[in-house]
Please model this.
Amino acid sequence: MKLRGIIALTAGLWLSCGAAFGQSGQGSSPLTGAKGGTNNSFMQFTGPASSMKTYALPNASETIATLNTIQTWLAAQTFASAKLLLAGSTSGSGTLNAPAIASTYVWTLPAATGTLADLAFAQTFTNKTINCASNTCTVRIGSDVSGLATGIATWLATPSSANLRAALTDETGTGAAVFGTAPTIAGGSVSGLTALGIRSTGSAFDIRFAATEVLTADRTLTWVLGDAGRTITLAGNVTLGGAFTMSGAFGFTGTLAGTTAVTFPTTGTLATLAGSETPTNKTFVCANQASCVVRIGTDVSGLGTGVATALAVNIGSAGAPVLFNGAGGTPSSMVGTNITGTAAGLTSGNVTTNANLTGEVTSVGNATTITNASVIAKLLTAFSAGAGTVSSSDSILTAFQKIVGNIALKANSASPVFTGVEDNQGTLKLSSFVTSTQLSANANDYTATDGSNTCSTKTSLRISTNASRNITGLSCGQAEGDIRIIHNVGAFAAVLTNQDAGSTAANRFLFGGDMTLAADTSVTVRYDGVASRWRAITSPGAGGGGGGVTSVGIVGAGLTANSGTCTVTTSGTCTLTTTAATQTDMETASSTSTAVTPARQQYHPGMTKAWAVWSSAGGAPPVAGYNISGNVVRNSAGNYTLTFATAFSSANFVCIAQGTYGASLSIPFVTPNSASQVTVLFRNLADSLSIDQTGYVACWGDQ
Model:
C-alpha cells in the first residue's frame, strides 16, 4: 500500500505540471496564461544557447519596438552618454554625447535637409545671419570684406594720413590730415577765400582779412579795427623795410637808417629831441657826448655856502687860484708861501709845520714822529745777557738783557738736548702715535705709514696684520738713541725677525732671535747708533721672556720635549710634542707613554663599543645611544634588531640587555646576528610570551 501511494502521488504531480511545461519549443500558438502570456498574441524569443537571459516586459499595454521596422516613439526615451549611435557609411558611425555639465538641454533640428555644422572644422555657411552683438565675430578687412574701393581696406587697417590720401581720388596737396583745432600747415596756397579770420580763443576774431581789405597800389595794408578800444600787439622781432607810421592822438613815425638797432623800454614815455621833458633816474656820461652843458648855479646841488658863487666869479690859473670875496672853506692841509697879515687866528691847534725837521725826525703841526726803521736799525752797543725779572723801572736795554739771559736757561721746544740728570717728578706723556695700514704681506724696511704719518715723526706705532706676518726691519730715519714703542693692536701675531737680510742693514733688528708680538702685546726698541741696529729694551718674550725663564718642565704622559723640558726660544715660544695612541696601541692596551684621544679611546678592550636605549614601539632611532645606525627595527612583539654604525671585527662580541614595561618582568635574550647587527628578544617571565619592552643594551668586543 505504501508503494502504491507513492506511485499515485507522483502521477498526480506529473499531470498537474504537464500543462505548464508542455510547450517547450518554438511555436505559433499563443503563450498560455500559465507561462505568463495573455492567450491572445504571438511571441517568439530567440536568445543565446549558452546562458539564460531575462527580459522585462512593460506592465502597461504597450508595443515592443522591433529592430527592422520604422518605429514611432510616443514618449521620451533616455539614453546614457555615448549610447545613441547613428549608423552612417560603411566606414563609421556617429555618436551623440550629452553635455558634461548636469542640466537639461533641448536640441531642435532644422526642418530642411542639410548638414549640421561642426565647431572644430572649416565649413562654409550659406544664407546665414550672424548676430555679432551676441557672439564674438572676427572679420578680416583684407580678405573677408568685399566691395571696398581701392585703398579703403589699407586705410582701415592702418589709418594714416598717407593711406587716406591714397584712398581719395580728388585730393590736393600732400602731408598730414588737418583738423579744425590748432592745425599745422606747411607751404601751399589758398585761393577763392572770401575772408580769413585769425583768433586765439573765444568766438571773436583777433585779426580778420576780408575781401574789402586789399593791398593798394602803394603796398599799404589797411586794418580796420572797428573802434578805439582795439589794440594791435606785435610779439617778437618785427622787421620793417621803411618807416613805421601810426596816426591819431598817439601818432608815431619811426624811421630806421641802415642797420641801426633801437631798443624801446618795456613801459614809460619816450623823450623827444626838441621837447622840454624831465628825465628821472638817468645817468649822463658827458665823455660819450659831443657836449654837456651844466649850469653851476641851477643844475648842481650840494655845494657849500658861497662855493657856487666863487666858482662862478673866481679867476686865476691852475694850481694858483685867486679868491675874491669868497671863503676858502676848511682845507685839510695847506702850505703857504709869503703869507702876510696878522696871526690872530692861529692857535696852538693850528700852527705852521716846522720845515726844518727832516730825516729821521719829522713834524706835522704839534706832532713829532720818529720812523720805525730808524729805531729798529739802531745798534745795542756793549749789549750782554743779564739775569733777573724784568720790571717797569728797567730801561729797554736792561729789559732785553734779562729776557735774553732767561731764554738761555730754557730748553728748546723742538729737539731739546738735556745734560746731566733729568728729574721728572710729574708724569711723562708720549702722545704722538700712528695707526698704520694693516699688513697683508711680510714687510721689509717697514715705515708704519698711514697717509702722511710715519714712524719718522711718531713715537708709538700701532700695527696690525691679517695673518701672521714678518717685519724684517724698521725704517724711521732713526739716529742714536731713538726710541719706538710697537703695539700689536690686531688679532694675529707680528714677528720681528732677527738680523733679516730682507731689510737694509741699518734698519734691521738685533734681538738674538726672532721676536713674536702676539695680539695685544707691545715691545719698546731703541736704536743703537754704534751697531746700527734696533735693540729691544723691553720684550714680551725675548731671551726667555725677559725674566730669565729658559725652559719649562713637562709633566704628563705623552708630552715629550728634550728629555722632559721645553726650551723657551728667544721669541718666547715653547714647543710641546704630543704622541697620540693609535688603534693598535689601544687594542694592545700596554703603552704608558702615548696620549689617548677621543677618536681612539673606544678601541681599548675594556671600553663599551655600542649602547642604546629605545622605546617599545621601535621604528625610530634610539632615544639615546652610541655607535647605533638608523632606526631600531621591531621585528615582532618584543623582538628588536639594532645595527652598528661601526661594525665589530666579527660576530664574537657580547651584549647585555634589560627591558622595562610597567610591573611586568621579562627575560632578555641577546643574539649577535652578524658583526654589524644584534637582536634582542624580551619574554614575559610569567607565561614566556614575547612582550614589547623599553629596551637597554650595551656591547663589548673587538672592532
